[in-house]
Specification:
2 copies of one chain form a homodimer. Chain A is built from 4 helices and 10 strands, in the order E-H-H-E-E-E-E-H-E-E-E-E-H-E. In chain A, strands 4-5-7-8-9-6 form a 6-stranded antiparallel β-sheet, with helices on one face. In chain A, strands 1-2-3-10 form a 4-stranded mixed β-sheet, with no helix packed on it. In chain A, strand 4 and strand 5 form a beta hairpin. Chain A is flat. At the A-B interface, helix 1, helix 2, helix 3 and strand 6 of A face helix 1, helix 2, helix 3 and strand 6 of B.
Chain lengths: 221, 221
């Protein structure tokens, strides 16, 4: 069931693909926003639908069988471009641009627009948990090994408005290979809106991928 | 900041809009999937991008200023068509088709495709929390009054594969107007993959909307 595809692309070929897909993905992000917010007349909407269906047909003529999964280039660099939070080819990803500082704190600045709405004008609480699940998981992977969530507890402290936001997470303590992680989302002025704590473990498929990739181990990009 | 727009549409006009936007939204859902999975050549991808940018420009010529928010028709029926989980006009919504049975149990059958991926071939843990946050919130709104999450705890029991899934939630107990709710996601054969428990409270904006809408109160559609 788990997909690790060694697609025999060089890092240069991967970079060329990234250059092609980044603007395509961004244009679909803008389309999602436009579909939610448009006040166009019926004829414009019907024409838009016909155009989109034609694009879908052209892109679907040649496609991979399942989901994007994890693809590994000839250099051993793994990429998860379909990932719903980070994926370079996933228009649903905000995307989250995560940085890890020298102290192991993972931070991200991001923008959540109309497509992430729950209550009027506010970020859906479940989107906050999607972002924090991913960011806490990133902090848990301090040693470049992805860890999976076993428990996650969210505390909603106040409303999270749509717009620019920041988030951070760090490991509170390790228990063997299990990471106990805390984090939060805040408004640009630093006011925390949501806090989270979670436990993250090393799954079997990571160890499998490490074996597949040889002595050096994979690098997750 | 909170948006309640009385847009003076009749229920018939709302139904006509739904008929226009449902297929447009579905076509963008298929586009998201196609962008993730396509193996088209460079020229096809460049053409797709140009086409999509043209559609975005046509739809954006006339658009509402912010997010969709909550719009109320002349009959008092409120709709949240931009909602990230349920929204009729949000291509990111799976969407979730939720039913409430006579005993107050909220259930949903849904399909999560390539766009919801976390680990290879699996649903992102944060997507599971997005779905359960919304479904538990639905169960908490048994009296047709939306309640907001204050705490949510997720327990990841096993992998959740991409594909057809089901979920259910019910109130375990009430504490004044605060609802304590439990729920889970399961594979089609009933095997539970993720469990959740949460507390949900009645927010101020619901009481404001109830005052705006007069004696009958709003109906959330």
């Amino acid at each position: 069931m788990l997909q690790f595809v060694h697609d025999q692309l060089s890092d240069d070929e991967v970079a060329a693909q990234a250059e092609q897909f980044t603007p395509l993905t961004q244009s679909v992000r803008e389309l999602i926003d436009a579909v939610i917010r448009t006040e166009a007349d019926d004829a414009t909407i019907a024409a838009a639908r016909a155009d989109i269906e034609r694009v879908v047909a052209s892109l679907s003529e040649r496609q991979m069988p399942g989901s994007y999964g994890m693809r590994v280039s000839t250099s051993g660099t793994a990429r998860a471009w379909g990932n719903v939070v980070m994926g370079l080819r996933n228009p649903m990803a905000p995307p989250l641009d995560i940085h890890r500082d020298a102290d192991g704190v993972s931070t991200a600045s991001f923008h959540l627009g109309a497509a992430f709405e729950g209550p009027p004008g506010l970020v859906h609480g479940g989107v906050a948990s999607l972002v924090l699940d991913h960011l806490l998981g990133h902090a848990a992977g301090f040693d470049r090994r992805p860890r999976m969530t076993t428990t996650l507890t969210m505390h909603y402290r106040r409303k999270t408005p749509l717009g620019p936001l920041q988030a951070r997470a760090h490991i509170e303590r390790m228990d063997g290979t299990t990471a106990h992680v805390v984090g939060h989302i805040a408004e640009p002025d630093g006011r925390v809106t949501v806090e989270a704590e979670g436990t993250f473990v090393l799954p079997r498929w990571v160890r499998e991928l490490e074996e597949l990739s040889g002595d050096d181990g994979p690098r997750f990009a």
